Amino acid sequence: MSPRKQAARAADAVTSAGSAAVRTRRPRIEGDREAEILDAAVAVLGDVGYDRLTMDMVAAQARASKATLYRRWENKAALVVDAVSRAKGMPAADTPSTGTLRGDLLATWCGRSGWSSTVPMSVMCGLMTALHTDEELGAAFRAGFLGPRQALARRVFEDARDRGEVADGVDLDLVMSLLPAICVQQELLLNRSVDDDFVKRVIDTVVLPACRAGQSTAYAGTTQPARPDPTEMSEPPSRHNRIRS
Questions:
Q1: Measured distance CA(173)–CA(130) in Å, rounded
Q2: What was the pLDDT predicted at 134?
Q3: Domain enclosing residue 72, as ranges
Q4: Of 209, 179, 189, residue with least CA distance to 109
Q5: Separation between Cα atoms, residue 202 and residue 102, nearest integer Å
Q6: Which of 27-41, 64-78, 214-228 is predicted with the least confidence, judged by mean pLDDT?
Q7: Are residues 184 and 111 in the same domain?
Q8: Are 169 and 150 a contacting pair, CB within 8 Å?
Q9: Total domains present in the chain
């Protein structure tokens, strides 16, 4: 065999070995195994908070190697956001319209994919605290957790506006934020449970009335009423008042 052919075969062998190593090094993590790792991340997050959480801790909890985690998630921010998103239930992008704003809000906010799905309070508190100090986590959270929910909410409210359920002049960004803001206050600040009944009450007593408030109603009371002109008073001051003055 010529030296050129020997070199070519050696190069092919190296390439094949390298490809095999890549395939061995980066297998896909999916199904039950991925779910186990994400559940482990939620458990560790609830125990120690985001700042103290490490990939080693999650790997130990899931009985996996740290290398296995890094094959699927580039850092702990990506892992934690995926874990919390799964625990809270990600809304389906193709959620069908019920034909009414109330029906759409109930469909997207109640049940498995809604706010009231079961996630330990310690998990959400630990995450919310870190969002303000960890830029990497904040970016991952806004893209992976908030992004899909905000996109769905905008579609729901825009459809409602097209059907005439949202009055002209109503700020969609504002009414979109009412339900999540109240739920955050109820659960994270007041330490009270948020269940489907609570969500329904907020929708019926706050969100829907706000959507029906037109621009004139929404801004009523923001300007001071004009003071009467003294020169236009229909009756002169009484004699009693003149004497006292």
A1: 25
A2: 92
A3: 28-88
A4: 179
A5: 11
A6: 214-228
A7: yes
A8: no
A9: 2
Residues 129 and 177 in one domain: yes
Judged against a pLDDT cut of 50, whether residue 239 lies above it is answered with no
pLDDT in tens, 126-182: 788 788 889 999 999 999 988 988 998 999 999 999 999 999 999 999 999 999 899
Q: How far is CA 156 from the centre of its chain?
A: 15
Q: Which of 202, 203, 209 is nearest to 170 (CA)?
A: 209
How far apart CA 214 and CA 167 sit, in angstroms, is 5
Contact assessment for residue 150 and residue 127, using Cβ atoms and an 8 Å cutoff: no
pLDDT of residue 25 exceeding 60, the answer is: no
Torsion from C-alpha of 63, 64, 66, 68, nearest 10 degrees: -160
Q: How many angstroms separate the Cα of 71 from the Cα of each of 24, 28, 47, 151?
A: 11, 8, 24, 29
Which residues fall within 8 angstroms of residue 123, CB to CB, at 6 or more apart? 42, 45, 46, 84, 87
Helix axes 31-52, 121-131, angle to 10 degrees: 60
Span 20-25, mean pLDDT? Answer: 38
In a domain, 82, yes or no: yes
Residue-by-residue DSSP string for 74-89: SSHHHHHHHHHHHHH-
Express each pLDDT in 177-209 by its tens digit.
Answer: 999 899 888 887 887 878 889 999 999 999 999
Q: In this structure, what token pair is assigned to residue 88?
A: 């809270």
